Amino acid sequence: MMQKKNRAFLKWAGGKYSLVENINAKLPSGNRLIEPFVGAGSVFLNTDFKRYLLNDINPDLINLYNFLKAQPDAVVHDASRFFSDKHNVEATYYALREEFNHTADEYYRAILFLYLNRHGYNGLCRYSLAGKFNVPFGRYKKPYFPEEEMMVFAERSQKAVFTCLPFEKVFSRARRGNVIYCDPPYAPLSKTAAFTSYASKSFGLDSQHKLAELAIRASKKRGIPVLISNHDLPLTRKLYAGAEISELSVKRSISQKGENRKPAAELLAYFAPATDLPPPKPRKRRKKPVKPVLKHTGLK
Fold first, then answer.
1. How far apart are CA 110 and CA 115, in angstroms?
2. Number of structural domains in the chain
3. 181-210 per-residue burial string, b: 16 or more CB within 10 A, e: under 16
4. By three-state DSSP, how is residue 180 classified?
5. Residue 230 forms beta bridges with which residues?
6. What phi and psi, each to the nearest 5 degrees, are found at residue 20?
7. Do residues 135 and 116 lie in contact, with contact meaning Cβ atoms separated by under 8 Å?
8. What is the DSSP letter of 257?
9. Measured between alpha carbons, how far is residue 248 from residues 26, 110, 298 in Å?
10. Alpha-carbon distance 254 to 261, whole Å?
11. Which of 5, 9, 80, 70 shows the shortest CA–CA distance to 40?
12. d(CA 180, CA 52)
């Protein structure tokens, strides 16, 4: 039983902190949890699998996670220096946003990504078509520095592998005994409500269909359970036909004003694994090339 809920250290549109209990109730046991759309990682932080494969199409997010996993003390120390009164100024924010968009230093970019997340408007993560981060200044009195949450994330991430791949490739890495949880960009409630500029790549209707097809195939042909979160719409009901549907009603955390956070109908679609499949064939183990350890000496 979960003792204490762990909060993500990033502000994140559509984060699953408030739904962790509902999601946990539907997740079966397994030896590894795979998340093709990890986002801020609330499900990862509040489950207890032996191993994790955590993926996101946003390279800035995965870059930050890998540095935090490899050298948490340095990341926390260097990031904390950007949480001061002099950095919480509009002109400084835009100057640092410009540096973020032009630096080739991955470590500095990771530090600035956290700064922008906590100082930008409503914690949004949005890019222009040219791939430039373009969220405006947030005007917060004193942005919170999430040191404790970062250290919890770093500790738990020792059981995780982070990747930045298309979701289709992540499904291909799943094996019998794994569990897949998907929190994709939601199907829009209306034609004007689509929010697809999260990582300069759109997640449209074709992607929604592809994800549903992969979930069906993983569960029925490969014996791998899949759980998907999405809006409860005629479209998603049709896409997830055959899955076990649980209805949810949650408050939107994307609205800056609390009174505007209206309940929206959401669902959890659980694709149970087929149980009458032959045992998987043993795989030939390939020698993995030794990767250089991600290391940085910190900011000057």
1. 9
2. 1
3. bbbbbbbbeeeeebeebbbbeebeeebbee
4. strand
5. 267
6. -55, -40
7. yes
8. S
9. 12, 34, 44
10. 8
11. 9
12. 10
Output the six-digit token pair for 149: 């949450």
Copy the structure tokens of residue 241: 């036909």
| CB of 171 closer than 8 Å to CB of 218 | yes
**In this structure, what CATH number is given to the domain that contains residue 1?**
3.40.50.150
pLDDT tens digits in sequence order for the chain, 300 residues long: 446 899 999 999 888 989 999 999 999 999 999 999 999 999 999 999 999 999 999 999 999 999 999 999 999 999 999 999 999 999 999 999 999 999 999 999 999 999 999 999 999 999 998 999 999 999 999 999 999 999 999 999 999 999 999 999 999 999 999 999 999 999 988 765 554 444 445 788 999 999 999 999 999 999 999 999 999 999 999 999 999 999 987 765 444 455 555 567 899 999 999 988 887 777 666 666 666 666 676 776
Looking only at the bridges linking them, the beta strands covering 51-55 and 160-163 are parallel
Spatial separation of the C-alpha atoms in residues 135 and 10, rounded to whole Å: 15
Stated pTM of the model: 0.89
In one-letter notation, the amino acid at residue 218 is A
